[in-house]
């Protein structure tokens, strides 16, 4: 099977890092390609970043359809453009936040999220509510690490992530930790060893869920709101999204 991992920001270095983490967990028979849009934010840390990045995600889905991709992963914890992407394909589309929350719920009764900037705590809380996981989450803790700092200073970032995760384990009652950024994928194994509890990286969780969905012969439902968008014309910079009947 062919899984396409879409990093919605424009950092090629982060795409390579996320892709490597995904490849390590993928089955030997899985072909995994990691891409990022040419246009958009270099990191996604706000509602505005999320909205702009969603356009790039949709463009990458359409490219993947031409390449015969079997499943897609949106490798940003905000899951930007997730349902829009699902409208554009019958292939399964997995967001790493949704994947991580559900995977954590299978191995613990309460989990905590350790994320980047303080403002993204609210974004994570919105997603927890949207996905029906709010009652399972003990806390959402911020490190105030900018996303791109995960690439530039990984040792210092790892120490901050472990510190917040320890607080979640010891004071919030978390039985597992969800990493709240795709750029944290490479930290999961060392953190799990240090903490002694499950640490869920959404990228790895999404890879295994995508493989499972394809293996089960499942596809994105085209009944209801995830049906293919109605044919219509788009203008200006979005003309390439135009569809004829």
UniProtKB/TrEMBL annotation:
Catalytic activity field: D-5-isobutylhydantoin = L-5-isobutylhydantoin; a D-5-monosubstituted hydantoin = a L-5-monosubstituted hydantoin; D-5-benzylhydantoin = L-5-benzylhydantoin
First-tier enzyme category under EC: isomerase
Mind telling me which InterPro entries this protein's record contains? Asp/Glu/hydantoin_racemase, Hydantoin_racemase-like, Iso_Racemase_Enz_sf
Question: What is an example of a GO molecular function annotated in this UniProt entry?
Answer: hydantoin racemase activity
PANTHER family cross-referenced by the UniProt entry? PROTEIN DCG1
* Family of this protein: Belongs to the HyuE racemase family.
Q: What is this protein called?
A: Hydantoin racemase
Tell me the organism: Rivihabitans pingtungensis
